[in-house]
Fold this sequence. Notes:
Elements: H1 13-16, H2 30-34, E1 39-44, H3 50-64, E2 73-78, H4 81-94, E3 103-105, E4 110-112, E5 118-123, E6 138-141, H5 150-159, E7 166-171, H6 178-187, E8 192-197, H7 199-202, H8 209-218, H9 221-229, H10 242-250, E9 254-255, E10 265-270, E11 276-285, E12 288-298, H11 302-316, E13 320-325, H12 340-347, E14 352-354, H13 360-371, E15 374-377, H14 382-390, H15 403-423, H16 432-438
Parallel strand pairs: 1-7, 1-8, 2-5, 2-6, 6-7, 9-15, 10-13, 12-15, 13-14
Antiparallel strand pairs: 3-4, 4-5, 10-11, 11-12
Amino acid sequence: MTIELLDPPPPTAASTQPARIPYRPRPHFLPLHASTKRFHFVVAHRRAGKTVALVNQLIRAAISNPRRHPPPRYAYIGPSFDQVKDLCWGYLKHYTDQYPGVRYLEGDLSVIFPNGASIRLYGGGQAFERLRGIYLDGAVLDEYPLLNPRAYTSVVRPALADYRGFAIVSGTSNGDDHFHALKLRAEGDDAWDVFDIKLTDTGSAALSPEEQVELTRDMPADEYAREMLNAFDAPIEGAYYTDAMNALQTQNRVTTVPISLASPLYSAWDIGIHDFTCIWIFQLIGRAVHFVDYVEERGKNAEHYLALLDQKARSWGCEFKSHLLPHDVEHREWGSGQSRRLTMNDSSPIPILVAPRVPDADGIAAVRGLLGVSYFDQTRCRRGLARLRGYKKSKMGTPVHDDASHGSDAMKTAATGMPLITSISGRYSMTGALRRRLRGLI
């Protein structure tokens, strides 16, 4: 069925009057306002100004829509009626009360603009069901972790189909939930723009430096990681490296890490057959360790991983100086009846080093020390960083053996084997703190 749109309305005295929306965007929301994508995923730290930005995104869309019939319709969906009434309704009226010809329907929490476009607020557990069957030109689903995921998939998304409306799904991290699942999906879909706005990104535009320091002191480490650094894997009871991972973020050591053509590459492994084989790739730069990539696969032999590392090195224009393997490399496995170490030596011209076997507590302490002098590439090491955040202890006080443990064990190989690496490299000098943590491990 073809729908013919009517011509836009002729100018009226009200519509030709100059009007100003008293909104000055914070710098970290300018990319959102400038985006031309249809779908937007926004995860922002607390007090970033997200609600104000989203309300104004709807206002701008409503007043600029030229369609007369049917009148453009926009929706803001929040987790509770009180939230949308006490917070969003106040913002919506504040930013539109100087616009000529605007009408407010208090009972419906709706604002109607002179062009006929409307914005309505919906709040409450099943409030989104009232949207079923209607059309929408745009919708914001805020605090999405607290909403039923069907609000978007079953109700809002079909409502956008008639006029190819836009959607903004937003919130603050609440762990590995449906909000996180949507983020991972959106990152792989060209129709979506993903905005990950951490406290470390907004600087003093959101909170003063003094307040930021006080928050790190007053909030538990896992809550700070979740609420202020957007860590979806942070709320894990008993996680070993939460403080160290938070320090990486607050000190901007998870960033874009260039690969130095003047420095050799090293790798640190955790070997698995039915489990994951995980490999950290790093360089020694001055007194710091730069982790430039992370590999995680399963069901492949030594030759596969060595070829993969060689391919990466060639593409970067670098060479590996040595591969650092865990203490269990001597176990007879990997399909040939030979030890893994012998298989590796047969397959690689690169020297093979074996990290010592140490107690779990010493290995964890060594990793904490290593993290204190390390930088991580935020893109290539993203999965590995998630594994470090997810490494935790059981109720018995011992490390949990799960998917997170393999990437973390590869980091233990790097930490406990670092003295072997530095013994063959004259270009790296360990800090005193790291040296004290590693003393006695080999």
